[in-house]
Structures are given as C-alpha cells and as structure tokens.
Amino acid sequence: MIVRAASRAPDHMSLKPFRFMVIPPDRRDALADAFEAAERELNPGIAGEKLDRAREKALHAPVLLAVISRVQENMEVPEIEQRASAGAALGYVVLAADLLGYGAMAVSGRKVATKAMHRAFRLADNEGLLCFVGIGMPAKVKGPPPEPDPELLRAWQPDAGEAG
C-alpha cells in the first residue's frame, strides 16, 4: 500500500524515475557492512564507537526501504524534474505510512552518495541512492505539526511595466 501510494507521485511522461528496495531483517547485517564501508570511505581513520554507531543504524527500523532515483535521458523531462518526482515519491511513502498509523523517517546524509553504497545496491550509472526510510510503530505519538508560515503562499505579481 505504501509503495503503491508512492507510485502515484507526480511523474511527467510516466518515467517512474524512482524505485524502492526493501531490506529484510535477515539482510541487515550485510547492510551494516555496507554502512561501515561507506563510513570508512568518508572517514578513513574511523574506528571504535563511531564505527559501531554507523553499523547500528542498519538494525533499528522494523521495515527499512531504500529510495533510489533513476534519471533517464529524455528531451521532454529534464533531470531536475525527474529528481523532484523521486522526492515526491519519498514524501508519499512517509505520508502513506503516517496515514496508516505507522511512524516513518527518511534518513540520508553523505553516506548515501558513496561508492560503497552504490556498489552495495548495485546501482546503474543513472541511479542514485536518495535515502533510507525507516517504518515502524512510533515510540511516542507526535503532536500536530506547527501551522505553516503565511509567507509560504503568495499571489504572483507581474512587474509593473508589463502589459496586463
């Protein structure tokens, strides 16, 4: 249901410039190895507790999805639009999980762009690991979100010199 909702993200020409990969619990140790390799790539001298923390991040969420963007050559749909579609799909994953009563959190950072992660997920040259989404039952119920800033929405005003 959650990935089905994500597949409804705005997508000019139905390119589906995104895909998802679930990481089952029995493969989390391999993901922890990939997290460790990514951390070592970013910080060659890392050791001890910091390395343990990097590994532990693979083990927390009951359900873990990798969100992968895949930009396709298309004269009608520029790269930025395809990446925006992948971001919208990510947002739909989090929203759908929330509406179903689950907690969901997207986690990214520098490690998602490492060669180690690219290899671990066997990404094609046109693909990139956007983030991971952890899904589970929230430890505590969140309150309502803050009211949006009124400046978030404005009416467009043409330049005074333009013809109406």
From TrEMBL:
Keywords: Flavoprotein, FMN, NAD, NADP, Oxidoreductase. Residues 2-136 form the Nitroreductase domain. The keyword Electron transport does not apply. GO terms for molecular function: oxidoreductase activity. Its cofactor is FMN. FMN binds at residues 8, 12. The keyword Isomerase does not apply. Binds 1 FMN per subunit. InterPro entries: NAD(P)H_nitroreductase, Nitroreductase, Nitroreductase-like, YdjA-like. Residues 141-164 are annotated as: Disordered. Belongs to the nitroreductase family. This is Nitroreductase. It comes from Microvirga aerophila.
